[in-house]
Design a protein that fits this description.
Chain A is an all-alpha fold. Chain A is 71% helix and 1% strand. Chain B is mostly helical. The two termini of chain B are 23 Å apart. Classes of the chains: A mainly alpha, B mainly alpha.
Amino acid sequence: MRSKGFAKHYYLMLLPGFIWLFLFSIVPMFGIIIAFQNFNPGKGVFGSEFIGLETFQYMFQLSDTMNVFFNTIYIAVMKIIGNLIVPLVFALMLNEVRYMGLKRSIQTIVYLPHFLSWVILGGVLLDIFAFQGPINQLLEFFGVEPILFFGRADLFPFLVVGSDVWKEFGFNTIIYLAALTGINPALYEAAGIDGASRLRMLWHVTLPGIRTTAVLLAVLSLGNVLNAGFDQIFNLYNPLVYSTGDIIDTWVYRAGLLNLQYELATAVGLLKSVAGFILISLSYYLAYKFTNYRIF
Amino acid sequence: MMRSKSLSSKIADVVLIIILVSIAITCILPLWYTLSLSLSSKSAAAAGAVALWPVEFNFSSYQQLLQDGQFFKSFWISVQRVVFGAGLNFIIVPLMAYPLSKTVKDFKGRNVLMWTLIFTMLFNGGLIPLYLTVKGYGLMNSIWALVLVGGAQTIVFNIILTINFFRNLPKSLEEAALVDGAGPWYILFKVFIPLSIPVLATVSLFSIVYHWNEFLYGLIFMTREEFYPLQTYIQQLVVSVDPSTMTEDQYKRMSELSNRTLDAAKIFIAMIPVLVVYPFLQKYFIHGITLGSVKE
């Protein structure tokens, strides 16, 4: 090969990107030492006094943070399950539609909410579920008392999970649909000749055909166990639902940037980052082991 | 594909299509409702009289919107952010993806650099260290805080997608160019990039949508409203809640008193750029995602 002297050009190509990532991804990582300091913004990271693990001890004594960890995992796990099953069922249903034009139109429409921000959709949802919004009008029509949906702590986690699944299910079908088109049509023909009904084809041809993809997505979603969705909850919650709706990321935002408890917020954030890193690495390892999948 | 056309099969088809179309409708209905609300009179909106069609149809909220100087200022900031952010993404992604798509045999440093890149994607210092770093750089109230911080967090995923695409291109193309005496820059710009339009369109779409939708960095890095990008401006307006304790009655009153028709108009206008961009890129992103991420 004549690509011998290329390495220096390769480094040159990578240089601008790595400078960018160094300044905005790697440098901030060193800020985690704030969690081990009695941080004084005037003295900065280098001048502040070290106090060891004191902040972490304090953190584990706060009932607040324990509740926030629980809410995060509770909401995130429900989202993972919903976001695996609903798109799969939808993709299987869509796969049975034989009018290509209709199929494409449905796809175009259901992908759309994925591309809208939670600021926008949060505003829309708060309007629709408002005390005098259309959902309550509908309930009133059936004689049900109006409900203050986003003010009810008992309903909040389910509204969050439901609206997230609604926003993402369309986009999440893309990968399932790609796997479905990868199934050899000869298998369906053979099953048809053997007299299999559509349900039997679904069971014996379609489902085995997308099993690998489904397992892969399930394993990879393990990395999301601590991601309950900051953008969504930040735009939907209010003090009435903190008890069930406050998650790590929203708590860190308030503790750090509104109450200026830098050390505590950094410590909680660090705990989340480390646990999240371990979970994602584990999920990649398992994905490689079970399905031979590599991210790159 | 041979499939039986019995009566029960036809009924099943009709039921299936009705279910799928209903689900698709739920994906646009909320957006339709927001449009109706923005075109209704204030009193009708406050009384909760609006359902599917505008009540007392008028354009007064859009006229009022035209006089809101901050809305247009924020809109312009978001446009600039998208242009710089997606532009930078478009330049840096292929520059980094090309060398990293090489094997260790062709590029010795490849694996170490790749793992560094992956690490910046999987681990982060958390919100507070990021905030203090950007403050330390003197980027508060600068649009570059929005472009560079957000970009650094999303670019690695885009690079991985592009690496996988580059690796799926026929090896013989590069070999032929090498035989003709082409250097690495020529191969990247004249061979790889022209063949990679699907994946580059996909990562550009992701970058455009991300920079348009992101609101948190606008909130924490901009100290004055005049520097807010559009989503942050709307976030503060529509869904921001006073973090002090709030009773259920206060929450109810607040949701009734807000100017719902004007807010709906702002939300609707903020959706339009995404609605316009996305159908054109749809054929690319489905292709780009499935080629880049799922390797069957």
